[in-house]
């Protein structure tokens, strides 16, 4: 039986590009150090920053919240978790339960935004009424809410996208000729004052498999199911599988790819002209933002402004970030 290359205890994992075996304790430390190095190298978080971690309940966001909770004292930043209950049947109820258990175990404040309660519709309903795929509506709602919470709390927004996700998006953007999308796949996307919060991806170099083994090695609660609307045959997924096959014969090829993609500087939204949505005051690529348009069609009212106020109230109720 293989032994941990550090302490000699029974190994649970082998990391081919390091040629090392790890026991569960040292495996968790290996992933935490990987995240720490990404944060340092790309200056994702500085002492005194506020960070909102967007947590879905899946394994990657469990890895995100746990690694950030470990690093919070070392780096010296404030951390709060943000969960959106999308009201996709019992999948969403189970996700929220997993997030609540995780946040309480890690001692991190949690803000939950329930879209049915706050906006009066669920994602499946919105999809039926607008005749648009659930994932496209869900993506627009989530992106708006991440940004709103970051702007309202004056925080950077961290998401749990892992190395394989970024590679899948990058190859898809390349194949579709979306070079703007491709250039935004850096570990950080800078914010624009008052309009857009900075976005960070601390798991940029963490492989999907590493994230999975991390939650197992720490025994973290997470939801094992995928969203019922997930498309397992999407182009991103096929590109991910392709790169995973390459990695088997060329260990670390994925890390090399990401190193080049990350570039020297983060993508700056200011490189293009953006405007403020006249309804809610947040980022828009021109005129009323997607979220305000979408909520106006579904509820008769553009909801952005009210959502911003509500997020501040929810954070205040939790006493998060000195807003109590
Ligand atoms: P996905 O868009 O489902 O691939 O998830 C990518 C990342 O977005 C996750 O790792 C989380 O950081 C964030 N995220 C996805 N769904 C939610 C949610 N319901 N609430 C909060 N954050 C989420
Ligand atoms: Fe949004 Fe599945 S998580 S549609
Ligand atoms: Zn060990
Ligand atoms: Zn708006």
Question: What would your notes on this structure say?
Answer:
This protein is of the alpha/beta class and 324 residues long. It has one domain (33-271): 3-Layer(aba) Sandwich (Rossmann fold). The chain is 51% helix and 12% strand. Helix 1 (24-41) crosses helix 9, helix 5 crosses helix 6 (134-153) and helix 7 (163-176) crosses helix 11. The mean pLDDT is 93. FE2/S2 (inorganic) cluster (FES) binds at residues 86, 123, 134-135, 138, 227, 229-230. One zinc ion binds at residues 277, 279-280, 282, 288-289, 291-292, 304.
The count of DSSP E runs of length 2 or more, i.e. the number of strands, is: 11
**Total helical segments:** 13
Oligomer: single chain
CATH topology grouping: Rossmann fold
The percentage of residues in β strands lies in 5-15%
List keywords for this structure.
324 residues; alpha/beta; Rossmann fold; two-stranded antiparallel ribbon; 13 helices; binds adenosine monophosphate; binds FE2/S2 (inorganic) cluster; binds zinc ion
Write the layout of secondary structure elements.
Layout: E1 13-15, E2 20-22, H1 24-41, E3 50-54, H2 59-76, E4 78-85, H3 89-106, E5 109-114, H4 115-119, H5 123-130, H6 134-153, E6 156-158, H7 163-176, H8 179-183, E7 188-190, E8 199-200, H9 208-218, H10 235-249, H11 253-262, E9 267-268, E10 275-276, E11 283-284, H12 290-299, H13 304-317
Parallel strand pairs: 3-4, 3-6, 4-5, 6-8, 7-9
Antiparallel strand pairs: 1-2, 7-8, 10-11
The structure holds adenosine monophosphate, FE2/S2 (inorganic) cluster and zinc ion (2 copies).
Adenosine monophosphate is lined by residues 54-56, 60-61, 82-84, 86, 142, 159-161.
């Amino acid at each position: 039986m293989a032994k941990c290359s550090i302490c000699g205890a029974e190994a649970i994992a082998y990391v081919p590009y390091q040629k090392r075996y790890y026991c569960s304790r040292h495996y968790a430390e290996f992933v935490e150090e990987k995240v720490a190095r990404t944060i340092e190298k790309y200056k994702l978080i500085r002492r005194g920053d506020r960070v909102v971690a967007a947590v879905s309940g899946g394994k990657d966001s469990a890895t995100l919240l746990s690694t950030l909770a470990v690093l919070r004292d070392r780096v010296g930043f404030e951390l709060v978790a943000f969960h959106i209950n999308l009201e996709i049947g019992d999948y969403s109820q189970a996700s929220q339960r997993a997030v609540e258990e995780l946040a309480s175990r890690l001692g991190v404040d949690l803000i939950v935004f329930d879209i049915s309660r706050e906006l009066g519709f669920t994602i499946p309903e919105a999809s039926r009424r607008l005749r648009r795929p659930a994932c496209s509506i869900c993506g627009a709602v989530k992106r708006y809410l991440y940004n709103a919470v970051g702007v309202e709390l004056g925080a950077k927004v961290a998401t749990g996208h892992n190395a394989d996700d970024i590679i899948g998006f990058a190859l898809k953007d390349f194949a579709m000729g979306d070079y703007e999308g491709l250039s935004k796949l850096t570990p950080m996307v800078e914010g624009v004052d008052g309009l857009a919060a900075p976005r960070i991806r601390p798991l940029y170099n963490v492989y999907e498999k590493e994230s999975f083994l991390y939650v197992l090695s720490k025994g973290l609660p997470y939801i094992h199911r995928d969203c019922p609307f997930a498309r397992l045959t999407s182009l991103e997924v096929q590109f991910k599988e392709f790169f995973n096959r390459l990695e088997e014969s060329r260990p670390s090829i994925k890390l090399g790819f990401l190193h080049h993609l990350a570039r020297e500087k983060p993508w700056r939204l200011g490189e293009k002209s953006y405007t403020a949505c006249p309804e809610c005051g947040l980022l828009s690529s021109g005129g009323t933002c997607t979220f305000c348009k979408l909520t106006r069609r579904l509820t008769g009212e553009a909801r952005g402004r009210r959502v911003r106020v509500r997020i501040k109230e929810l954070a205040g109720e939790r006493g998060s970030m000195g807003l109590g």
